[in-house]
Design goal:
Helix content is about 25%, strand content about 30%. The protein has about 300 residues and is α/β, with parallel strands linked by helices. The chain is elongated, with a radius of gyration of 21 Å. The two termini are about 15 Å apart.
C-alpha cells in the first residue's frame, strides 16, 4: 500500500515528488512512456529560473530526478495500463500488470503537442521545429519564422513571434482563420505578418547538421508547390492531454484536460490530485507545471494528515 503514487516524470511530477518526499511520505513515481516528459525532447531552456545561462531540457529533468531521489522518492521506469478509481484505496496497473494500491494519487501525465506527421519532424524537433513560441521565440531573432495553424493559439503565437522574427508567415489549410474576429484583425493588419491561405507543408528541408532550413508548401486549390526559407517552424495546432485513462472517473473539459477545483490541484475525487499540462490548456510552461506540482504535493500531504 502506497501513501502517495505519482504518475508522470516532468516538472510537475518531480516537483510533487520533491515536496512529498521531504515530508517523509516516501512517494513512488512512475516515469511513464517518456521518462522526463516532453522537456527531454527540447534543447536549451532559457526561461526556467535559476539557470543564468540556460540549461538543456534533458539535463534539467535529470537534475529534478536526482533532487527527488535524494529526499527518498522511488522512481520506476514504468507506464500505466489501467486504473480503478471507483473506491479507495485506488488501484493502478502498470504495463507489466503489476498492481499498485495507493491512498492518494497525483496525476502529472502531461500533454502531447499535435504534429503534422512528417517523417522528418522528430529529426528537427528542437533544431528548427518548436511547439512553444514563448519558450523558443527568442532563439529566432531576425530570422524567417513560420507558424502552422488557424485558431486563436496560432494567431497569438504568430503575433508574439513578430517581436523576434524578421518575417513571420502563418500557414493555414483553409481560406479563413478560425480565430476570434479581434485576433484575425490583428494578424491580417500586422506589417510583419503574411498569411498563406489554402496551404499545407508538404515537406521539411534541411539536415542534421544545419537543422531546418526551409519548407515545401503546397497550395491545395492550385496544386502549386513552392519552397520557402524557414529558420523556425512553430506548430500551433493544439495539444492532446494524456488523460484518457482517467476520464471514466474524473471530470474533464471539452478538450480532455482534467478539471481541478479553483486555486487547487484537487479533482472531483478525494485524494486524487492533478498537476502540470494534463490540467493546463493555457500556459503549458515548465515553471507553471512545477508550481502546480508543488500545490499537488502540499495538498496530498495535508489530505493524508487529515485522514490519518
Amino acid at each position: 500500500m502506497e501513501k502517495i503514487l505519482i504518475l508522470g516524470s516532468g516538472p510537475a511530477g518531480y516537483t510533487a515528488a520533491i515536496y512529498t518526499a521531504r515530508a517523509n511520505l516516501n512517494p513512488l513515481l512512475l516515469q511513464g512512456k517518456v521518462p522526463g516528459g516532453f522537456l527531454t525532447t527540447t534543447t536549451k531552456i532559457e526561461n526556467y529560473p535559476g539557470f543564468e545561462r540556460g540549461i538543456q531540457g534533458a539535463e534539467l529533468m535529470k537534475q529534478m530526478r536526482g533532487q527527488a531521489e535524494r529526499f527518498g522518492t522511488r522512481v520506476e521506469q514504468q507506464s500505466v495500463a489501467r486504473v480503478d478509481l471507483s473506491v479507495r484505496p485506488y488501484k493502478v496497473w502498470t504495463g507489466a500488470e503489476q498492481l499498485i494500491e495507493t491512498q492518494t494519487l497525483i496525476i502529472a501525465t502531461g500533454a502531447i503537442p499535435k504534429m503534422l506527421g512528417h517523417e522528418k519532424e522528430k529529426d528537427f524537433l528542437g533544431l528548427g521545429i518548436s511547439t512553444c513560441a514563448t519558450c523558443d521565440g527568442a532563439f529566432y531573432q531576425d530570422k524567417a519564422i513560420v507558424v502552422v495553424g488557424g485558431g486563436d493559439s496560432a494567431c497569438e503565437e504568430a503575433l508574439y513571434l513578430t517581436n523576434f522574427g524578421k518575417t513571420v508567415t502563418l500557414i493555414h489549410r483553409r481560406d479563413e482563420l478560425r480565430a476570434s474576429s479581434v485576433m484575425q484583425e490583428r494578424v491580417l493588419n500586422h506589417p510583419k505578418l503574411k498569411v498563406l491561405w489554402n496551404s499545407i507543408i508538404s515537406d521539411l528541408l534541411g539536415d542534421s547538421q544545419q537543422g531546418l532550413t526551409g519548407l515545401k508548401v503546397k497550395n491545395l486549390q492550385t496544386g502549386l508547390e513552392v519552397e520557402l526559407i524557414c529558420d523556425g517552424l512553430f506548430y500551433a495546432i493544439g495539444h492532446v492531454p494524456n488523460s484518457e485513462l482517467f476520464t471514466e472517473y474524473l471530470k474533464v473539459d471539452k478538450q480532455g484536460y482534467l478539471i481541478t477545483k479553483p486555486n487547487s490541484s484537487e479533482t472531483n475525487l478525494e485524494g486524487v490530485f492533478a498537476c502540470g499540462d494534463v490540467k493546463d490548456p493555457i500556459f503549458r510552461q515548465a515553471i507553471t507545471a512545477a508550481g502546480s506540482g508543488c500545490m499537488a504535493g502540499i495538498e496530498a500531504e495535508r489530505y493524508l494528515a487529515k485522514i490519518s
